[in-house]
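Subject: design request, 571 residues
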């Protein structure tokens, strides 16, 4: 719709893209899918509009800095680096921005490749009162304070960034505040900015022969999840997140600090695995809920370094026995039992109702599900209790994948098997129809469980070992080769092969149009061994030994839970 407006019978004389009041928000927290904003999305849209060939300028109206802690200063620097990569033309500093001291502002200015604007009364080494830049055949003047004669004489139109006290000579005002677009009787345009970089403002101007604004088009582009991302900007943010992930940012008081169980020095966190010993049904119901996957959400969004996010996506963060940033193997990832019921060390040692919380107080939920991260939650809290209603039947695989695709986009489903394992074959027969149903909406990976010999002898047929011997190793390798060479047929091959493990593999291959000779040539090549070596590394790293084992977004499940199947795992 926006491009159609710009590509009307006559293209605009100039397009001004603008932001304001971003407070250096890098991207949405990811707590719910509909959140708008983010530097990678903004950069993608800016690039897309520029490629249309319009004379385009990119500016910011101020309120760009936020927080004085070191991590906030670094975040603001990353924001300016991203804006430099996007080739911003200028940024106006607001009164709130100028309240930072000269050392801070000089540090931020050193990162930016564009000028900072500020009223002339505060002019110093890192600001200037105006710039004049060319857009097509027109000179556009951007000012942050009063309009001087130089700008009036040289600019075709004058745009004020911020909230000017005097409107004389000004053709348009871009305010950092969230205001509706208006045009005054004297023709001056006034547009504003929603906060936190949720949108990208577009102001298109059509000029007459005298260089005056003849008409305009103003709108805000919502940067929703449907918008693509700029790869360079995404990498910039990823590098920043990884750099600070090893640090331990200062945090506020931990969650539930006023609750009795959290205050007891002799108490501590034991993890959901300890609760499972007595509460198997409750554990199974919880394990497929969004709470169990809360930490995986941070990993997908690259926010596992941020104490403000980690606090609500893990268990016991901020307490000595709780989750610690940097402990990727922690058993306290996700929102576990003890988030609602309190630290359970004493309860595990001596189960009593008096040393654990009932979890019925939904007001505790609001410490994380606040108006920013879960808008409207207080009004519909009863609808969300299904995630903590342990009397419910645990989710099956299809229900879980449906939930994950709605929540996080494209979940990863990993099936760890031995190709000759009867229970593994049974799992494949149940999983593959589900994989076909979801198609490209999920990322399915077939992983095999086997080991590589430390010192294979010259007499060994293969350097690998598996529970069911060499035939299983050979079949595992063939399935990987068929998956790579025949992605449209390999699932059907696995189903066929599972029913005919006592027969030759060629029968299923021929039935499905798979080139037997091609697979055999590849099978006898060194690359087949390397393909298998790389595949079995995943199970080894995770310590997965039982076939079948299912992982959804890195979260481990028993096959009998997700598939409603029974059998004896091979291990």
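Subject: RE: design request

Done. Sequence follows.
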């Amino acid at each position: 719709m926006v491009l159609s407006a710009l590509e009307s019978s006559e293209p605009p004389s100039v397009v001004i893209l603008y932001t304001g009041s971003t407070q250096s928000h890098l991207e949405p927290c990811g707590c719910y899918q509909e959140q708008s904003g983010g530097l990678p999305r903004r950069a993608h849209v800016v690039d897309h509009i520029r490629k249309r060939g319009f004379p385009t300028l990119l500016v910011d109206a101020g309120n760009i800095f936020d927080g004085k802690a070191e991590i906030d200063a670094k975040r603001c620097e990353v924001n300016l680096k991203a804006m430099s990569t996007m080739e911003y033309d200028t940024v106006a500093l607001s009164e709130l921005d100028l309240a930072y001291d000269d050392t801070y502002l000089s540090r931020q200015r050193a990162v930016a490749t564009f000028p900072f604007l500020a009223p002339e009364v505060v002019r110093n080494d890192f600001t200037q009162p105006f710039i004049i830049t060319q857009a097509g055949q027109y000179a556009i003047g951007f000012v942050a304070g009063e309009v001087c004669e130089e700008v009036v004489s040289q600019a075709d139109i004058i745009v004020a960034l911020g909230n000017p006290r005097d409107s004389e000579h000004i053709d348009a005002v871009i305010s950092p505040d969230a205001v509706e677009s208006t045009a005054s009787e004297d023709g001056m345009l006034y547009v504003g900015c929603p906060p936190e970089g949720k949108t990208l403002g577009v102001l298109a101007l059509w000029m007459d022969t005298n260089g005056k604004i003849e008409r305009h088009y103003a709108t805000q582009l919502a940067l929703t999840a449907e918008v693509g991302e700029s790869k360079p900007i995404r990498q910039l943010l990823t590098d920043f997140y990884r750099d600070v992930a090893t640090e331990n940012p200062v945090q506020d008081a931990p969650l539930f600090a006023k609750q009795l169980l959290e205050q007891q020095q002799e108490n501590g966190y034991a993890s959901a695995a300890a609760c499972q010993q007595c509460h198997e049904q409750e554990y199974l119901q919880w394990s497929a809920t969004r709470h169990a996957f809360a930490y995986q959400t941070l990993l997908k969004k690259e926010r596992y370094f941020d104490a403000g996010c980690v606090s609500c996506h893990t268990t016991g963060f901020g307490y000595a026995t709780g989750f610690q940033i940097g402990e990727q193997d922690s058993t306290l990832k996700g929102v576990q039992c003890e988030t609602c019921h309190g630290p359970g060390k004493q309860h595990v040692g001596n189960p009593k109702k008096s040393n654990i919380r009932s979890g019925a107080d939904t007001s505790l939920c609001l410490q994380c599900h606040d108006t920013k991260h879960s808008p409207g939650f207080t009004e519909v809290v009863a609808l969300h209790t299904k995630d903590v209603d342990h009397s419910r039947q645990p989710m099956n695989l299809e229900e879980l994948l449906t939930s994950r695709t709605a929540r996080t986009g494209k979940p990863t489903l990993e099936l760890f098997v031995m190709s000759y394992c009867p229970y593994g074959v049974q799992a494949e027969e149940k999983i593959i129809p589900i994989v076909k149903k979801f198609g490209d909406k999920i990322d399915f990976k077939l992983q095999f469980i086997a080991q590589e010999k430390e010192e294979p002898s010259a007499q060994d047929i293969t350097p690998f070992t598996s529970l069911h011997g060499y035939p299983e190793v050979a079949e595992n390798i063939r399935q990987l080769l068929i998956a790579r060479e025949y992605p449209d047929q390999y699932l059907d091959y696995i189903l066929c092969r599972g029913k005919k493990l006592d027969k030759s593999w060629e029968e299923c291959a021929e039935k499905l149009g798979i080139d037997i000779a091609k697979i055999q040539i590849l099978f006898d090549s060194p690359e087949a061994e390397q393909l298998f070596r790389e595949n079995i590394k995943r199970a080894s790293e995770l310590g997965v030994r039982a076939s079948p084992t299912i992982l959804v977004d890195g979260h481990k499940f028993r096959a009998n839970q997700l598939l409603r199947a029974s059998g004896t795992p091979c291990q």
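The first helix runs from residue 2 to 6.
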